């Protein structure tokens, strides 16, 4: 059974940083493209970033390009999202997902709140 467990969210001021983690199990993580998606209050799921199975190629939504960095540690079955220069509009529940452009949550997500 595929399991994805996100963590690392919290409350941060505008301009701050957070690092999200997603621990994966139940499938061949090292052979799977992965992604991050988010859902802001009252809005639908939005794809944020993706990474290919080798970790060499990364992809970003225009709204986060230059501020967020996706990475993976296949030895730890873990996906990361480093978020810098956070904005109020980044407030959302963040999920990791299977696939380079995945948006289907499989875990509880982690809440990121950007507020002064």
Number of strands: 10
Global geometry:
globular
Name the helix and strand elements from N-terminus to C-terminus, one letter apiece.
Answer: EEEEEEEEEE
Structural class: mainly beta
Question: Radius of gyration, rounded?
Answer: 13 Å
Q: Can you summarize the main beta sheet? A: 6 strands, mixed
Low-confidence stretches: none
Percent of residues in helices comes to under 10%
Mean of all residue-level pLDDT scores = 97
Q: Give the N-terminus to C-terminus distance in angstroms.
A: 40 Å
**Major beta sheet, strand line-up:** 2-10-9-4-5-6
Question: What percent of residues are in strands?
Answer: over 45%
Number of helices: 0
Quick rundown:
The protein is an all-beta fold and 116 residues long. It contains no helices and 10 strands. The chain starts with a strand and ends with a strand.
Care to describe what's here?
The protein is mostly beta strands and 116 residues long. The protein has no helices and ten strands. The strands form two sheets. A six-stranded mixed sheet has the order 2-10-9-4-5-6, with no helix packed on it. The termini are far apart. The model has no long low-confidence stretch (mean pLDDT 97).
Layout of secondary structure:
Elements: E1 3-7, E2 10-12, E3 18-25, E4 34-39, E5 45-51, E6 58-60, E7 68-73, E8 78-83, E9 92-98, E10 110-114
Parallel strand pairs: 2-10
Antiparallel strand pairs: 1-3, 3-8, 4-5, 4-9, 5-6, 7-8, 9-10
Question: What features would you highlight for this structure?
Answer:
single chain; 116 residues; globular
């Amino acid at each position: 059974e595929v399991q994805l467990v996100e963590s690392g969210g919290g409350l941060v001021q505008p301009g701050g940083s957070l690092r999200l983690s997603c621990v994966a199990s139940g499938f061949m993580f090292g052979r799977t493209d992965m992604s991050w998606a988010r859902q802001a209050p009252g809005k639908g799921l939005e794809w944020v970033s993706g990474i290919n199975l080798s970790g060499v190629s990364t992809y970003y939504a225009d709204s986060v390009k230059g501020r967020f960095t996706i990475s993976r540690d296949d030895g730890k079955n873990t996906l990361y999202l480093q978020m810098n220069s956070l904005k109020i509009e980044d407030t959302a529940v963040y999920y990791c997902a299977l696939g380079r452009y995945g948006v289907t949550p499989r875990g509880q997500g982690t809440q990121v709140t950007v507020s002064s």
